[in-house]
Structures are given as structure tokens and as C-alpha cells.
Specification:
- The protein has 191 residues and is an alpha/beta fold.
- It is built from 6 helices and 11 strands.
- Strands 5, 6, 9, 10 and 11 form a 5-stranded mixed beta sheet that branches. The chain has a two-stranded parallel ribbon with strand order 1-4.
Length: 191
Amino acid sequence: ETVFSEMEQMKREGNRVPKFCFWAFNGPVITVVQSLFDNIYKKGKYKDLWFTWDGKPLLLYNNRPAIDAILAETRPDAILSFGLNYAADEIRPERIAVNFDDGEEDGAHVARRIAADGPVGYFSTHPVEDIVADLRGAGLPAKASNHAGAYICNHVFYYLRHRFETGLPETIAWYLDNAPWWRMAFVRGRT
């Protein structure tokens, strides 16, 4: 709630702030989603900060069959995924996603392949150096990153690339890891 209150204050002061959506990836996903609905969406809290899709707030959760069905139905030309990297001071386009999860899930360590039938890794389908140059040209701090980490960011990047390679090979896909928006604003010299 502190972040949202701060974002609202910054917006009142005339600053541009990002819209948000939640993503429940692991743990008791249904419980988390229900709590978000009850405590944020149902009450209309921070409504002007919601990222909406077809007039409804976007809420993402880990449900691969639904993702696969949406991809099959929409057959997107391109997918751009975003992650949050608290250690970064810039936007970092990722070069490689690896076929391995290494993290915490439901309080236990996880070490497993993402796709049993998948290769060791996938490269971004868009030249990372071009993305960095375009972002810098727009005055944004940017730096290429060789990999998307070892868990959630990597999982999203790898899973989508694997789905495209096995069913939508013409789809362009890349992943951007972002520094927290407030840190990038200060790096750029803006408040």
C-alpha cells in the first residue's frame, strides 16, 4: 500500500507513473488472487493506477493451459515481457533464457527443467543491441543482460520462447528486466 500511495502522490504532483497489474506465480495462487480481489479491486482502491484490458483490471496468475489457449487463439505477432530487477539501475534486455528453474516455491527449494522436451536455452528473437540503442536514444538508461536469472523472469521468457518454437515459430519474443521505476527516474535526473 505504501508504493501505491506514493504513486498516487507522484501522479497528483504531475509525474508520470506506471500502471500496475499483479501476477500471482507461486504459492497458494487462488488465495492470493482472492485476497487481491477482496482488498484492492472489489474496493476500487488505486483504480486510476490499474492496468486494464478490455475495460477490466489485468490480473495474471500461473495457469499454463489458459496461457496456451490464449496464445493459440490470438497467435500474436510479438510478445514483450517485463520483469522487475531491484539490483538494476537500468532497463536490461535479456539475451538468453535457460531451461531451468532454481528458486523457492511454496516454501521449498525448486530445481527443475521448465520444459522436458525443450533445449538448454533460447536466445531473444530481437537483436538485444538494437533494443539497447533504441532505449538509450530515447534517453532511457539501458544495458544488455546475458540472462534472465534463474527463476520467475527466466521462467516466463523461456516458457514463452518454447511455446513459440513449438507452435508459433513466426512470433517475435523478447524480455526486458527493469529497474524499479522510481530508481530509473532518479538515474535519469527526473523526479
